[in-house]
Amino acid sequence: MKNIFFILLLALLTFSCVGTSSVGIFGSGVSIAYDPRTVGMQIDDSIMQKNLIGRLALTDKKYIISISAKVLDGNIYLTGKVSEPEEKLKIIKMAWETKGVRSVQSTVTIKGNNNFKSTARDILITSQLRTALIFNKLTKATNYTIDTINGKIYIFGIAMTKKEKEKVISEADQIHGVKEVIPSIYLVEELSRNKN
User: Fold this and answer.
1) pLDDT tens-digit series, residues 91-107
2) What's the CA gap between 23 and 30, in Å, rounded?
3) Can you tell me the mean pLDDT for 2-21?
4) What is the largest CA-CA distance in the chain?
5) Domains with residue ranges and CATH for the chain
6) Nearest-angstrom CA–CA distance, 54 and 186
7) Is residue 147 exposed (0-12), middle (13-18) or buried (19+ Cβ within 10 Å)?
């Protein structure tokens, strides 16, 4: 009886705490079903991203945690915080040196420029926009990376249609506390391999 109870308890603890995540060869959080890029484009972007992250880690191990890089169609989007302005310039230079890069956009900030209140406000703004995109049937929220820094929303992603792009920007404009919306949203037909 003790063995059955123990096995039942172990099974309950094991299976009730396990969440689902999409982790695969393209990294965590990538949903191939909703991504308008071809598999080849996704692989190229993933290779560029891993290459940049690897070079950043070799430069300084703290960049593994403090800097995030996303690549869409050869366009690199950097986020995170660094201690010195020289570090920011070095990271942007490394991104431009990545083979196959088409553009680099950076929202990397210097650590001393933010306080707790502004950081909390930025997290709230990002969460509100993410939620609005999830519940809006015209938008595919998984296609966007959203960062808010000092009330400025940076949106990086791929829109299926011009109407979707306009809706994403409109949703961001409607959030209280937003100072500026800086979109870097590409339409599917603007992707380099779809122009041929």
Assistant:
1) 988 998 888 888 888 88
2) 7
3) 50
4) 69
5) 36-112 (3.30.1340.30), 114-194 (3.30.1340)
6) 26
7) buried
Among 190, 32, 166, smallest CA distance to 102 is for 190
C-alpha 149/C-alpha 140 separation (Å) is: 23
- From residue 35, alpha-carbon distances to 63, 90, 194 in Å are 27, 31, 14
- The one-letter code for the residue type at 48 is M
- Residue 115: both structure tokens together: 């306080």
> Which residues have a Cβ under 8 Å from the Cβ of 159 and sit 6 or more positions away?
139, 143, 165, 168, 185, 186, 187, 188
- For strands 180-187 and 152-159, give the pairing: parallel
**Tens digit of each residue's pLDDT (9 = 90 or more) over 124-148:** 999 999 999 999 988 888 888 888 8
**Which phi and psi angles does 194 have, rounded to 5°?**
-90, -5
What one-letter code names the amino acid at 97? E
Pairing of strands 103-110, 144-149: unpaired
Give how far the C-alpha of residue 26 lies from the chain's centroid of Cα atoms, to the nearest Å. Answer: 14
Among left, alpha and beta (phi > 0; psi -120 to 50; other), residue 187 is beta
The token duo for 12 is 């309950």
What one-letter code names the amino acid at 22?
A: S
In the block, which residue shows the tokens 């409607």?
Answer: 174
